[in-house]
Amino acid sequence: MATNPAPLYKVTASPEPLKRMVSRIKKLNPGDLIKIHRGGYHHLALYIGEGYVIHLAPSSEYADAGVSGLKSIAQSIATVKKEKLQDVVGKDVYHIYNVLDNQSTPLPTPDIIQKAQSLVGTVLPYNLATRNCEHFVTELRYGTPKSQQVQLSGMTFYIRIILYS
After folding, report:
1. pLDDT digits 0-9 by tens, 95-136
2. In terms of DSSP H, where are the helices of the chain?
3. Which one is catalytic: 37, 42, 95, 133?
4. Please, what are the domains in the chain?
């Protein structure tokens, strides 16, 4: 039996009526991971409530970055930022991404939020393969850094080597 994926949400270029924005925010819970589809890669953030997220952002990461966000490959540091969800998402599609909940128990929400808030403004080492935005938010939510994106891209690379060798 197939399960339906989490609903995708899209912030449009024109301002939404406040009522629709508030109802969209109500679907998010503090501590939820948000996956933002940038076209070629995904950026992840932690929803902390009241329309704000905390995320690890190399200088090349910004709303609607698209392919230019791939410049993060060359980045070695990134800053922990607290920003409005709408400002981080821009026109990109996003959805709740708590996919590791079936493998790991999330930490208590107050602990997740407190740790995230304590890191805002901190400059951290950044590495696309070992310490990216997904590692950052999964460590906050579960206590262990993991990146499905890196694992899947590594698997794809490995399969390509096997198929084309």
Report:
1. 999 989 999 999 999 999 999 999 999 999 998 888 999 999
2. 18-26, 85-89, 109-119, 133-142, 148-164
3. 133
4. 9-164 (3.90.1720.10)
